[in-house]
Amino acid sequence: MFQTFETTSNPAAGAARLAMLRAELARRGLDGFLIPRADAYQGEYVAPRDERLQWLTGFTGSAGFCVVLPDVAGVFIDGRYRTQVKSQVDLARFTPVNWPETWPGDWIAGHLDRGTIGFDPWLHSEDEIARLKETAGSGITLLPVDGNPVDAIWQDQPGPPQGRAFAHPVALAGESGAAKRARLAAVLRAEGQHAAVLTLPDSLCWLLNIRGADVPRNPVLHGYGILHDDARVSLFADPAKFDAATRAHLGPEVALAPPDAFPAALDALTGPVRLDRSFAPVALRQRLEAAGIAIVWGDDPCRLPKACKTEAEIAATRGAHLRDGAAMVEFLCWLDTEAPKARLTEIDVVRALEGFRRATNALHDISFDTICGAGPHGAVIHYRVTEGTNRRLGRDELLLVDSGGQYVDGTTDITRTIALGDPGDQARMAFTRVLQGMIAISRARFPRGLAGRDLDPLARAALWLAGQDYDHGTGHGVGAFLSVHEGPQRISRLSEVPLEPGMILSNEPGYYREGQFGIRIENLIVVQAAPDLPGGDDRRQYCFETLTFVPIDRRLIDVAMLSPGERTWLNAYHAETLAKLSPRLSAGARAWLEQAAAPL
Amino acid sequence: MFQTFETTSNPAAGAARLAMLRAELARRGLDGFLIPRADAYQGEYVAPRDERLQWLTGFTGSAGFCVVLPDVAGVFIDGRYRTQVKSQVDLARFTPVNWPETWPGDWIAGHLDRGTIGFDPWLHSEDEIARLKETAGSGITLLPVDGNPVDAIWQDQPGPPQGRAFAHPVALAGESGAAKRARLAAVLRAEGQHAAVLTLPDSLCWLLNIRGADVPRNPVLHGYGILHDDARVSLFADPAKFDAATRAHLGPEVALAPPDAFPAALDALTGPVRLDRSFAPVALRQRLEAAGIAIVWGDDPCRLPKACKTEAEIAATRGAHLRDGAAMVEFLCWLDTEAPKARLTEIDVVRALEGFRRATNALHDISFDTICGAGPHGAVIHYRVTEGTNRRLGRDELLLVDSGGQYVDGTTDITRTIALGDPGDQARMAFTRVLQGMIAISRARFPRGLAGRDLDPLARAALWLAGQDYDHGTGHGVGAFLSVHEGPQRISRLSEVPLEPGMILSNEPGYYREGQFGIRIENLIVVQAAPDLPGGDDRRQYCFETLTFVPIDRRLIDVAMLSPGERTWLNAYHAETLAKLSPRLSAGARAWLEQAAAPL
Question: Please, where are the H alpha helices in B397-540?
Fold first, then answer.
């Protein structure tokens, strides 16, 4: 099993560790310190040595941070973690703070008039510190410190991850690393920049056509890179992670050096050097400034090209989705057989699903810890079942299962909401509205130049009409055997990035009724140039190709609510699912799929 | 008749006038000059004395400008006027330039390396000149000049308009002028501004609860105002326009002075003074700067409050729409009787429609020149019929009629597209898609904080699915017995202004097939707080109340394309139309409406 179910939090250790940290801060003349969840790569998953927030506070969420002051320590958590944090931290020592409703700067101003608050300049981006400075009072100094004070007191802190890097073949990538570097170097030259510093692990892996194993779930390497304007790359990562074959794959234009050579390499640059304000650690700006090198703030040059997948990446991803879809259908068939016996728990379901994916003999990892919420647990948007929360599947309720796989040919992410018995009309009507939103995105055609923001309302309009909505984006970017959450593409009210061909996105509207049920339906889709239509204008439009083929629970659809076009789309989707997956299924699953994909 | 049908353009005069202007420019040492359509109030309609662009070039469109250089004179026109301009200007002297595809600065750079181009600082906003300077070459100087050179050579130029101002009663406005001024003055004080200069006629009329008659179609006064931070207003307009009753209505806090007292009044201000970059003439900035008065760029303080109508304005507007709707139904009934006789022309239709509105005995003016396009003329988005273009209504085609009335209780704007015989399946399917978009906006509920940009895609999604779209916004703001086009509210890809209760907007998706037909369906709607729904979340949403009640041509609807919700909405709309209008109709029109509003 990749996924584990233990309760990893240890609130009891918090008091002593907090006292040690305050002593360490006092020794350094600091009044406070920031402890983010993030590591030096701003990734969603961090290595054990970077779990400083969890080690200090006990909080295990995937986002949040702690601000330690002399008399109070605030743990800032967003809406997903309001309940969880209360059971994970020692509430006598740590104060949960609702974020972003309360800004850390404002909160600090409420507890401290004057003082110096330290931060580790490797763990915060320029943007993040700038926002903090804007709201903190004028008596507060934010001071970057050398050496993280948490590391100084964390005696059994693990070492850096040592995952092996490996080649990602050009047959899957669709473009050689040399070709990628050549076109990005041309961009740097055109903009008069001599180099760009790359700090995002998926950018680096994409540019070099390699993958790594330094964190769970995302097959990335921890390291930094410098892309020079002559298309050479200096790569700073532990050479022990690279075997001879992988070194050969990097090619002669990529110079591998150990991480401790990185600062001197920065000093040796001649500017201007491009840095990304949103992701590059403050420490890089400090180092370049100290060396007198001009900085140009600009986007990580790999981020947008990486998001626009090649034909080869899309073709490979289609294959990964069919493999994953067949595993999902085996799972759904099994679930329909086992659930009525009323013995299954959420953990049983997660185990079974991972088993069906493993049975493909191609599973590299799961792409994130499966979210499996029965009944009221479905309403906890990022629910992760543990032995402590595990729930037996009930009768006449909904089961929400959000999961995915990492395969060398693609990354999947799929949510299905399944009827256990008869969950009632309220759930059925809400499910149908969520489905209408999901179909609206799936079948959308739209003018070139629109951003995710412009399409987001199409996914919500049916829910809005019923006075309902969901408090998350409609879709996130997805990598090609890379991070299951990647930027810059999104379908979200916040996203102004124009959608471009090759961008893979999730399409996952939902609806949540706290304490009762949760609904989410998710397929992955890829932006494509839309084919001309008879009777259509001469307009160059885009559309989405659906990548995910797994049936949507017909028992939860109120057919009378659907428009003719919605019904046609769903029947065509189910027919295509049946045609694509049948050859890959066991006899039992094939029979199950035939009824699950029957026309409405 | 308000509307006239003559061809007002005189291309033959252009050559001599252009030569005179170039001589005048040479006398002043200028290499070129800008002649905008706009007047000193940046209004959509201008007085005869401000028709400088038409006088010089012959071009009569509602937007555009001319750039006169030594060897070339460019007439910049947008997509609506590409054809029209060619028949209106002397093409040997004037060169049509596609705008905004070609920026005037770039165009100037292509024709003139170095030189001084004059402009009248009363006719251009700060924003407009700034944009021009950005693109013009470094050898080009843009020079504000005293005294417009066109006025200097235009011997029979009319004088300024002398329309009488009149009171707009508080019973219709819902808030006294004094109360409006008090709340805006409080805003100025809170922002540390001593005064705001008001240059938009509808802002001034709204603030003072008056109306005017200085331009056609929009009941506005030409004048400038200074709102002081103590809630007094200095009003600069021809005192002859004000009779004793209107002066009394202004009240003691409003000091009326002739326009030539305005510059000295500016000099006497103590800053900071608020000016709107988008609308205030450059001349104001010059004058204040010369007097050493600090300027703060900010929105015209009346614009947003004016857009959010009071309960009284909304109630009055509802009444205006029922009156106007009854006139429209009489018209549509007449049209259905007369059109099959195959004798009607577009001008006959416009005359008849204005007649039905006049028969209400309440018509103050039409709110714009009626757009009445039969067959292929329907595809000309801003078609204005003249004796030269007048077309006989054909068989088996569409007729598009976009019109409105100015009543003292409200401004209307409605488009209906009518079947003349059987216009065919392509037209019927496109009509149905346009209707689906119009219904999507009409019945939308949406979260507070969304802008028109966020809703615009809902109006287009059905067309997009067929590879179709329309090249105009979905909706514009509408005033309350004020301008039929008002800001800042819009439903458009370009509008980031959050929608707020009381904003009146048009909802007018369309579809146009050049040379064949045009379709547009338009109702006015007003933003309201949405009522709670059973089963809905505890979310504060907004919705639109429909103001326009006139049937939509059922003969053009492909019922099989509609969703259950769309069909329910349309039947409810028609039932409400029948209930509201029947008591106001002639017997013949009532019978006609009963079949036109029958359920689908």
Answer: 425-442, 452-465
